[in-house]
């Protein structure tokens, strides 16, 4: 890989099996040469070690476009010089809810379900509404139900809750 790094032109087939070489490509600005005389230029977000597919963040006018390049279509990778007007994409920071925020959301939802005359009970850290269970941290993506129609109805009830709703 050292020789390939010096050339800054890397035959992808020669580094596919070298996980350290693949890892060195992450967050670099590259040109990915594909079959059928096609190429993409962008920042390597990640590389799938199983399929060797590449996720690229390609600079656009107002941000970045994410492109998934299948591993079998890649011929080689050339590291490109980063121009001044191109800035690397910023990683989004995820916000973890505090225990207090989660408890407030739980109390607010239980009160909202009762306001809507739904049969709601608590079991440990779960909210149970009939045959639907709402798991921690009590967001729409945490709805668990056997019946998708019922799950959709509970989702709609949660979405209809006003931001300024105060539990009783």
UniProtKB/TrEMBL annotation:
Residue runs in coiled coils? none
One GO cellular component this record assigns the protein to is: nucleus
Return one Gene Ontology term, BP aspect. Answer: spliceosomal complex assembly
Q: Where is the AD domain?
A: 73-166
Name the PANTHER family for this protein.
Answer: GEM-ASSOCIATED PROTEIN 6
UniProt-recorded name of the protein:
AD domain-containing protein
């Amino acid at each position: 890989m050292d020789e390939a790094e010096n050339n800054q032109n890397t035959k992808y087939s020669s580094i596919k099996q070298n996980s350290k070489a693949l890892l060195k490509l992450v967050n670099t600005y590259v040109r990915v040469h594909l079959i059928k005389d096609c190429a993409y230029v962008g920042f390597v977000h990640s590389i799938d070690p199983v399929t060797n597919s590449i996720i690229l963040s390609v600079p656009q006018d107002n941000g970045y476009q994410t492109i998934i390049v299948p591993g079998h279509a890649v011929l080689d990778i050339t590291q490109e010089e980063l121009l001044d007007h191109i800035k690397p994409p910023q990683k989004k920071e995820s916000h973890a809810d505090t225990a207090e925020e989660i408890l407030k959301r739980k109390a607010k939802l239980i009160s909202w379900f009762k306001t809507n005359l739904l049969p709601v009970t608590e079991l440990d850290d779960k909210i149970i509404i009939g045959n639907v269970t709402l798991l921690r941290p009590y967001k729409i993506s945490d709805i668990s139900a056997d019946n998708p129609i019922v799950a959709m109805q509970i989702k709609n009830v949660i979405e209809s809750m006003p931001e300024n709703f105060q539990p009783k």
